[in-house]
């Protein structure tokens, strides 16, 4: 069976095209993307669905789904005296100790449905809550991983599931604290989990790995894990999110985290396009240049990084050096790619007292080196931000998503053409309006793998997903 949609305007890899017919197969892969398509009489008579503005869905490259249950609830200034990332982490640990696999599914389904409604069509799930409440293994070692996959299947979002290697509390192989017992995994545990998850891989699901951080997994373990990993699987790691982490790495290894990782892996397992370095907030100039050259993706989560007071990532210099990036919602204080992209750009503007900072950095890179990230030369900031983040996120997910082209997934958004913001606009201005003007959600329909999961702004299972989430929150709040 082949399905099709005709868009008056569609954002294709090279920019906006007109009169675009998208066709996809039953597996959800795009068979044809045809611009300047002339509608036949049969098409005009209702045989071909039509839309005005169609754009590729966004990839959310960093998620800890269970943290959705505490979004917005760690904002009490009196709680800890001086509140920072580390005190927030203690609250998160307390929540993590109580969540059952069934609750995990309810929370993740709510989160994923929200992400879909706002324009994310794929998510990378950095999954470290893998053991039972008492720290023992579940009889089914992938009980919590399956809960996430079921939530993804129920909601229709594409997922790259990344079981986490988490063995230590800090550098020098410090033993895990009791409150970290549900995260504990050895290399052997992760390989067992990967084996069990292998059968789930399909057009909607990819399986990779995530050494949690250099604090939680040492280099020997990371190499051991990667040596057993099938080729072309995504590899994610938290890196250099906090100054304290950088100082601890320097004290333990004599090097900063990114430099240590770049130099510590041998050439066979070096940092390359399989890797996503999440946050990478605190880099030296030489680390930043080396990372940009590596073809890895930096995973930036501006709403969470701002919420936790992480610091600035020097995105302008990184993009100027040809670096690749994508966005994630991490702790889920936001479920909107618009908010992430707006923060990403505004943070750089406030810091530099300039405008169009990230896009200008890309144009400067294009002028000096050429198009090493494959985005081309759009003249619009909004369009560049969306395309670059979707492309980087797609690479980090190791799935064929993030662009409307033959062979890629049929993952796209139909915008609400009746909204006042989208009246009397040239198509080239649509992404600027979407990202920089107002807070109404302009996503009307969401199609993932060729299936419509959001219509008229509502998820197809909204009522039952919300009811299960509310039941779950009632249980968790009572603890
Ligand atoms: Zn994270």
Could you describe the 3D structure shown?
This protein has 479 residues and is of the alpha/beta class. It has 16 helices and 17 strands. It has helices at residues 41-47, 85-96, 101-118, 143-155, 187-197, 219-228, 243-253, 257-264, 285-294, 302-307, 315-320, 337-352, 357-368, 381-397, 430-436, 462-477; strands spanning 3-12, 15-24, 30-34, 49-56, 58-63, 120-127, 158-165, 205-207, 210-211, 235-239, 275-279, 297-300, 324-327, 412-415, 443-448, 451-455, 458-459. The strands form 3 sheets. Strands 3-2-1-4-14-15-16-17 form an 8-stranded mixed beta sheet. Strands 5, 6, 7, 8 and 9 form a 5-stranded parallel beta sheet that branches. α3 crosses α16. Bound molecules: zinc ion. Residues 62, 64, 126, 238, 278, 330 line the site of zinc ion. Zinc ion (ZN) binds next to loops.
Gist of the model:
The chain has helices spanning 41-47, 85-96, 101-118, 143-155, 187-197, 219-228, 243-253, 257-264, 285-294, 302-307, 315-320, 337-352, 357-368, 381-397, 430-436, 462-477; strands spanning 3-12, 15-24, 30-34, 49-56, 58-63, 120-127, 158-165, 205-207, 210-211, 235-239, 275-279, 297-300, 324-327, 412-415, 443-448, 451-455, 458-459.
């Amino acid at each position: 069976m082949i399905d099709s949609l005709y868009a008056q305007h569609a954002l294709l890899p090279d920019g906006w095209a007109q009169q675009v017919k998208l066709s996809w197969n039953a597996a959800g892969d795009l068979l044809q993307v045809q611009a300047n398509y002339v509608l036949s009489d049969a098409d005009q008579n209702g045989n071909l669905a039509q839309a005005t503005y169609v754009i590729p869905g966004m990839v959310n490259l960093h998620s800890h789904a269970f943290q959705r249950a505490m979004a917005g609830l760690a904002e009490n200034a009196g709680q800890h005296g001086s509140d920072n990332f580390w005190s927030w982490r203690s609250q998160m640990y307390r929540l993590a100790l109580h969540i059952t696999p069934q609750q995990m599914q309810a929370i993740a389904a709510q989160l994923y449905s929200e992400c879909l409604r706002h324009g994310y069509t794929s998510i990378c799930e950095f999954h470290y809550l893998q053991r039972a409440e008492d720290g023992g293994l579940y009889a089914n070692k992938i009980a919590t991983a399956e809960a996430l996959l079921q939530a993804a299947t129920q909601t229709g979002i594409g997922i790259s599931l990344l079981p986490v290697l988490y063995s230590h509390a800090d550098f020098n192989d410090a033993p895990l604290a009791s409150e970290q017992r549900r995260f504990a995994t050895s290399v052997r545990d992760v390989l067992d989990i990967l084996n069990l998850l292998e059968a789930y891989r399909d057009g909607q699901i990819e399986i990779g790995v995530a050494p949690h951080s250099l604090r939680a997994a040492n280099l020997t373990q990371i190499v051991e894990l990667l040596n057993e990993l099938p080729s072309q699987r995504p590899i994610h790691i938290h890196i250099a999110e906090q100054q304290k982490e950088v100082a601890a790495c320097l004290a333990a290894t004599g090097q900063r985290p990114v430099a240590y990782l770049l130099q510590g892996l041998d050439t066979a397992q070096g940092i390359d396009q399989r890797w996503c370095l999440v946050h990478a907030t605190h880099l030296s100039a030489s680390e930043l240049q080396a990372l940009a050259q590596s073809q890895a993706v930096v995973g930036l989560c501006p709403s969470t990084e701002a919420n936790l007071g992480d610091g600035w990532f020097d995105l302008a210099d990184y993009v100027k050096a040809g670096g690749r990036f994508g966005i994630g919602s991490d702790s889920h204080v936001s479920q909107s790619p618009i908010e992430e992209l707006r923060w990403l750009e505004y943070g750089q503007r406030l810091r530099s007292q300039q405008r169009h900072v990230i896009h200008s950095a890309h144009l400067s890179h294009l002028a000096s080196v050429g198009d090493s990230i494959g985005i081309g030369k759009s003249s619009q900031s909004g369009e560049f931000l969306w395309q670059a983040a979707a492309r980087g996120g797609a690479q980090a997910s190791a799935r064929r998503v993030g662009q409307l082209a033959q062979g890629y997934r049929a993952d796209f958004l139909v915008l609400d053409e009746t909204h006042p913001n989208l009246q009397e606009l040239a198509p080239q201005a649509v992404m600027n309006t979407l990202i920089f003007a107002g807070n109404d959600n302009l996503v009307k329909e969401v199609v993932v793998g060729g299936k419509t999961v959001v219509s008229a702004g509502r998820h197809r299972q909204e009522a039952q997903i919300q009811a299960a989430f509310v039941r779950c929150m009632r249980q968790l709040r009572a603890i």
